């Protein structure tokens, strides 16, 4: 296996080249590259001193904060595997990921220690390996800073190989259970290089990471800027604040940020007198992803960010980046997700028999990249389903026009994207199917001007049963993250639920009816 530079090596290099440059900061504190490197070393050493060993999985559950940047680098340095957990998940969802990953340690923000304590009895994490980011550790926990203080600042570490796992990224699956996508150090570094080349980033950039650091978007872009020795600003607000975003862009002279359409819509909706208060002229590149963007929204983005070049991206946790709609294509190819990203290799659209479909026809999208994921953790069946040789698919359906532009037309899994979050209907259907009054249920996404899509539940009740939408939503809120819960509930007769000849619900037909 080949040795290569990881984000740990990159931070160490920049600590020598530009030790006093701010590498990352949030609203509370900043780290020069020298400070970042020193704290990552001590954290890595302290984690190994707890008894962790190369390849062990370490779960992280926290809001955005600068500590995420320390942890990603320290875990890579120690040869440990980062398992970021979405902070919006509920206790049972968190428990499943920790158990499935067979985690050896868990680091949590102080806001989540009570949640973890509520599920702790069934977790594989041993006593002494629960680490709180808070200043005071609850009973049974140790503090993050105490682990850093215990570390050896001069400890040597084993170099990583390109095939070594650096992260286990859990992404919801069509079966309703999240799947752990294995990301390697080699794939991570190659994607960072491709991103820098394609989008023209340099060490002089300042990136604002708004998306949760437990998500692939912020991790992949953050890795790029770490390799370059640029500066990463962490948006550590608990919820998106459009005016605060503008204030940060202006104050920190940010040159790049990645947002979902909902964020842009909220920024553009601010009163003109508010928007005029902030200088966003430093923003040279913008990215939008996760949902389609209307023409009027794109034009308004370009008008407000006058120096910003807009890019639109399609990718996934598993693929990495696949296609890019470049700045000069934004209006002429409105609705397309663009063409191949640099380094993505190629794209094929295949029918159910594995044959390429002609231009203009719909097929399942497969890509071949040098930075594709290495399969699903402990799930050989789903791994086999994702690949045809070197070609990988996450089930998205698309067509290609005569110029090679890709147009997403459906999701094989009926995935819903609301506010940038992926929601799989089968997971929500599984929860609602456990309600004693529910006989059958379908979850579909319907267009929403602000969030992209909203979650609609269509329910058939058992004969003689009655229920209210509020009762159904309350059932979900006790068992699912808030963003997965239906925003609206409709009750229908069994005969009115569209089905195939074998009884399967036709989600696409149901969605068409609801939209109409």
TrEMBL record:
Signal peptide: none
Domain AMP-dependent synthetase/ligase span(s) in chain numbering: 13-377
Any one GO biological process: fatty acid metabolic process
Keyword Lipid metabolism: no
Database matches in SUPFAM superfamilies: Acetyl-CoA synthetase-like (SSF56801)
Tree of life domain: Bacteria
Key words, A-Z: Ligase
Molecular function, one GO term: medium-chain fatty acid-CoA ligase activity
Pfam families xref list: AMP-binding, AMP-binding_C
InterPro entries named among the record's database cross-references: AMP-bd_C, AMP-bd_C_sf, AMP-binding_CS, AMP-dep_synth/lig_dom, ANL_N_sf
Coiled coil: none
Transmembrane segments annotated in the record for this chain: none
Residue ranges constituting the AMP-binding enzyme C-terminal domain according to the UniProt record: 427-504
Similarity comment text for this entry: Belongs to the ATP-dependent AMP-binding enzyme family.
Protein's recorded name: AMP-binding protein
Species of provenance: Ramlibacter albus
